[in-house]
Amino acid sequence: MEENVYPTPPCPASGGVIRLQARLTDVSAWMGPAWAALCGVLASGNFDWRSQDWLRLALLILLVDGVWGTLWAALGGTNWATPMRRWRNWRFGQALTPLPYTLPSSPGDQTARWLGHLRTWWRDIFWPTCGPAFSAAIVAIPMLAVLGALLGIESALLSMAALAVMQLGLAWDGGRGSISPGWDALIAVTLPWLAGHAAFAPLTLHSFGLALALALAWGAAWRADLAGERIVGIGAQILSAVLLATLYRPLAAGTVLLLMIPQLAMFPWFSERQVAARYARYARPWLMAAMLIAAWAL
């Protein structure tokens, strides 16, 4: 088997329509969470276009894209491991001024030394590397709690689930700042879809199944240079079509299958010797169209 001389680049964090920072990723990546949330709203079938639901929709987009996206980029896209590894053997920095009458080598003296080391490590190692991400997380977490409370108990629980998934993704990667496409798909598609649905109607098993299947396809598109990921991506979309067929939505099921044809046609263009990110850039818009059709059909 020929060696892949063009390895798949790190997956960028999805989200960022509202984030006030430069985005160098493709359109489908930063539109993903907002689009999935809108699909969830459409799947709920309970959005009143002539009422104050527009305000609720705006808060929803702010939550899933602005807050979740900012927090995910901060946690998943930052190399936390290197500064923490440096801290293990860090013995530099002048001790803080101890309290009066503190004896040498006493617990108070040792605490003053430890705090001095921590201050120097924070200033010289941690903050230059992780300071922006840490600041973003400090701002995003309270907003996550407030917006989740405003949108209801379901949105608050989904926000907690999103935070838990982010922490799992961070632990899975070892904190090296390389986002896994699988974890990103949960943040970009499944949870925003569920949040959009739950914001306007009770969740259904069918909606959850579609959100999960389409998330598998979303994550697999980023690793289309691997045969197994191609099978997962195509199989997940076929599963979505089958689910729609069981719900007596043959037109929607057929449309989802038709939208797979351009994705299949692009496979020979993006072989193992080419960067799979290019495939994701061109294939994900077709997947987003399939998401919209599936949500409309529910």
What keyword list fits this structure?
298 residues; mainly alpha; 11 helices; 0% strand
Report on the structure:
The protein is mainly alpha-helical. The protein has a domain at 43-180 and 197-202. 70% of the residues lie in helices and 0% in strands. The protein is built from eleven helices and no strands.
Question: Can you tell me the residue ranges where pLDDT is under 50 for at least 5 consecutive residues?
Answer: 1-7, 20-25
Give the beta-strand count. 0
* Multimerization status: single chain
The biggest beta sheet is recorded as:
none
Radius of gyration: 23 Å
Strand percentage, roughly? Answer: under 5%
Q: What characteristic shape results from the CA principal axes?
A: elongated
Briefly say what this structure is.
It is built from eleven helices and no strands.
List the helices and strands and how they pair.
Layout: H1 27-44, H2 53-76, H3 81-88, H4 107-151, H5 153-173, H6 181-198, H7 205-221, H8 227-246, H9 250-258, H10 260-266, H11 276-297
